[in-house]
């Protein structure tokens, strides 16, 4: 089986998007399938129309158009479609597998129809909701509604849909998409990368002033929807209850400057540490310093519908997790069993939940073991990848039996 993946961006860029993509492609290769990928003009590393090998994976790059704004998006889709078509010509895939955002699906759809190839469209988040979460969009605005309508249009015309969680699946079914057209392929962890927790580095702990600390950590991107301002705001109450409590923030992003300013103005500024971005190969050293990984996502449509990757990585590292009680977290964490859930958008609730965890360590080992077992059994990429196979086989069989094979009724 030969699968060509159509991506917004990819390696060597580092993000949750690229880590999920790498895991999918590597797991599919291990299954004996041939894979390649095409990255779009939004990859932001303009290498022209090059073909590159990164980490043993083949990426066809798309030259970014010179236009900007709406016309730039249109030109980008056209350029992307041409590049996908060229990759199809050289790679000869059996399946096109496009990944969100919807611009990727639109470009892939052109090629799928022209080449008579089946198209799987995988949605990791709805583009309109991601824009709201990133502060670049407004829920209910004309642009929001138009993007949502475009997404629905593309979903109806793709031959099969994959989503990363039940929240997204339920939303699509509510839009009238047949349930049997959708498969859930949840976020997972590559246990070859996160399977063996690193030993604590005493020198690194000393350099960060965490030698005898009760350490709360966040490792990831600093977006507004992550609720890190609420985590910083919780620290005075947490330190009052647990004087050795410290907060370690590893990463960066749009909220970096605002969070640093907020922390500097905090009465417990000395208890808050910023590390900045670190190479992915160094991340495990920082996980090893943290007692509890905190994920205080704000309550909004994006966080209710979408499951994050980072809590799973923490569980795989044998770490305790505490997270806001939003829909995406509830799909991953069983309160009081594999982790702790606290009220979102509430610094006092965060402080109380974290203080209670540090005050009662009796079941820490059991909770960590159950969380790790959950990842191994239900969120391990080596097994998650099996969820794609029935879709691929069904579409390939339909294409083989009938060269004009049945498309979605939305095309009729």
From TrEMBL:
Domain of life: Bacteria
Gene3D superfamilies named among the record's database cross-references: Glycogen Phosphorylase B (3.40.50.2000)
Domain (Glycosyltransferase subfamily 4-like N-terminal): residue spans on this chain: 16-188
One Pfam match: Glyco_trans_4_4
InterPro entries cross-referenced by the UniProt entry: Glyco_trans_4-like_N, Glycosyltransferase_grp1, PEP-CTERM/XrtA_GlycosylTrfase
PANTHER family assigned to the protein according to its UniProt record, in alphabetical order: SULFOQUINOVOSYL TRANSFERASE SQD2 (PTHR45947:SF3)
Protein name per its UniProtKB record: Glycosyltransferase family 4 protein
Origin species: Sphingomonas insulae
